[in-house]
Write a structure and sequence with these properties.
Two copies of one chain form a homodimer. Chain A is α/β, with parallel strands linked by helices and 370 residues long. The first copy, chain A, is built from twelve helices and eleven strands. In chain A, a hairpin with a 2-residue loop joins strand 10 and strand 11. The longest helix of chain A is centred in the middle third of the chain and has 21 residues.
């Protein structure tokens, strides 16, 4: 029996592909096979997920497949050059040719690292994303951005490399730890805030159902999020313009992650606090009403996310870390801000004084100073 | 005073660029500036070339440029993950943004490594090739193939990333060691053999002038070679079909380089012997006359190149190393052979016995067995 599914197309010319979303998708033996290039397959996952997913994925492969498995340690701090190098060496030792297909099974760490390995193994091989966290399902598995971290900055080394397909089984979310569910909801809230006011309002009404893992609500939120991301990526594959809007909350978020050293704060948690900072700055600059900023903060809180950066992070520390961020082009301060709930804009030349005021606000972010 | 130049266009849609060839090109202050994206520039070269070229390159940069320099050790064995990592770290420490431009000054090692760094630094930045060896001028600087070596195979990790421009000053060749000149001529001979019978005949007539570094002959040979490569690359940027013809002699050559450990044999020397092996196999299979095979061998010898693999390399050792080569797709033996001088073909399913006979011939390669 095949469960009902939704297909979200990502239109990128000869690199187009579909995101396939469905409950129980990974029980369907036909879901993966169309995307395998040759007979060689490398399944990549982490130590936590391997016992759960490797047997299921093996069952999806044709009998004649020559299968290699690479199990990395679990955690953002292993999304680095050393793990990448180990994966590449595994492929070389197993003599995978250019006709191999890499299958990334896990969250954004596994997906980003596997995608980058696929981008540079023999100058580029095929890969398929099987995201198992909400964050990966609505964000990192879509759009072809792949990377590893460097001690000097997050995602600093990477490539644009599109997957052949993204397979999302919403049942994976039933066993996801609460904190990771909330972290994924940060990106869902982001799509509403920067792209779709109606979706933002829907999220305000359904945040309880989402946190209770109601399958219908999750399916709808994932499909809406994937559509929003696919729309932006199709318009701007290599982040020359509109795609930068997807970084709403992320410049601040990356600074928080770099400061804390990748790990103590989940990516989505940092983005949650980052969106609150961006909304405060938007209101401070008169671009957004304080009421809208407060609604954004309330929705971030309802998602179970932090609404302020770590208390020990000074404005100066933020500015130091943001200077290395790649959204800061050629020395000019460039941030994604809001003009309404559902309307993000790229703002060049943000006044430093306003930014410093926002960074100094702590728990009172998004409250009108009047 | 500006010396006369030739422009060879490389047509790749929005990634098109020109190869600019001229004697004294690097004395012209206007040759580099049009290709710089922002104010940040990183000059990359090796320890041997740095004293000669860094002062000249600095003189080509605008006064407001923020310049970082990266000087790697000289040699193919440093075209590896460690040097790549050091270059990326240099860029991060100097806080280069996505608007930086990397300038590769040197041979294929510097160019391949710098190009790969440009491909993956912040998911891709601009770079310019300033090739200073004949090999780099006629081959590795053109076409966007970038890579580093791995102990398990040459060029196994890399990306396709096109330069913004290739600047060829033929005066660089006057100080090139004799062995490196011959190594570059291997690729020049390759273009004649696989693509242009008239150019092959021209090379038979002018090999003496080329080895005597006659500027006119060198200019003509470089321009013809760049045109041949640009033609093939434009037709097949990512090596799905015709571009594989550029690998004439290279599958054997890579096996020789892997066996000897990168260094004792220059790349061009290995390609020279590799072309003789390929010509012998072509004649053995009845695709090419033994007379034509002998002419190929004679031209390789006239270029000052070896015409047989290292004597200790057994056929079995060759086959072991070739199995890892990326031209061997999905387990099927696939080689570039000749049907005439000037006509390369992709040959699938080469009989193993014929290949083994060729690999066992040693000094008598390309002589008719009758």
């Amino acid at each position: 029996m095949t469960a009902p599914r939704r297909l979200v197309p990502v239109s990128l010319g000869d690199r187009s592909y579909d995101i396939c979303i469905g409950a129980g998708l990974l029980d369907d033996p036909s879901c993966l096979r169309p995307w395998l290039v040759g007979r060689e397959v490398c399944l990549v996952t982490n130590q936590t997920l391997a016992p759960v997913y490797l047997p299921r994925l093996r069952a999806l492969l044709p009998g004649e497949a020559r299968v290699t498995e690479f199990v990395m340690e679990d955690g953002e701090r292993f999304k680095n050059f050393e793990t990448l190098s180990a994966l590449l060496e595994t492929l070389l030792r197993a003599r995978h040719s250019r006709a191999t297909t890499l299958v990334a099974v896990g969250g954004g760490v596994v997906g980003d690292l596997t995608g980058f390995a696929a981008a540079i193994y023999q100058r580029g091989v095929a890969f398929v994303q099987v995201p198992t966290t909400l964050l990966a399902q609505v964000d990192s598995s879509i759009g072809g951005k792949t990377a590893v971290n460097h001690p000097l900055g997050k995602n600093m080394i990477g490539a644009f490399h599109q997957p052949r397909s993204v397979l999302i089984d919403t049942d994976c979310l039933q066993s996801l730890p609460e904190r990771e569910l909330s972290a994924g909801l940060a990106e869902v809230v982001k799509y509403g805030a920067m792209d779709d006011g109606a979706f933002f309002a829907w999220l305000e009404a359904h945040m309880g159902a989402l946190r209770a893992r109601d399958p219908e609500a999750l399916g709808e939120a994932i499909a809406q999020s994937c559509q929003a991301k696919a729309r932006v990526v199709a318009a701007d594959e290599r982040e020359g313009g509109a795609r930068a809007l997807l970084n709403f909350g992320h410049t601040f978020g990356h600074a928080i992650e770099t400061h804390t050293g990748y790990g103590p704060w989940l990516h989505g948690e940092a983005v949650g606090a980052g969106m609150v900072l961006a909304a405060d700055l938007s209101a401070r600059l008169g671009m957004l009403s304080w009421e809208a900023a407060a609604r954004l903060k309330a929705l971030v809180a309802a998602a179970g996310l932090p609404v302020a950066p770590p208390s020990e992070m000074t404005p100066d520390r933020f500015l130091e870390l943001m200077a290395l961020d790649k959204k800061v082009l050629d020395g000019r301060l460039r941030l994604i801000l809001l003009t309404a709930l559902g309307q993000g804009v790229i703002k060049e030349g943000v006044p430093l004084a306003s930014l410093q005021e926002t960074l100094a606000r702590g728990a009172s972010l998004c409250q009108s100073p009047r």
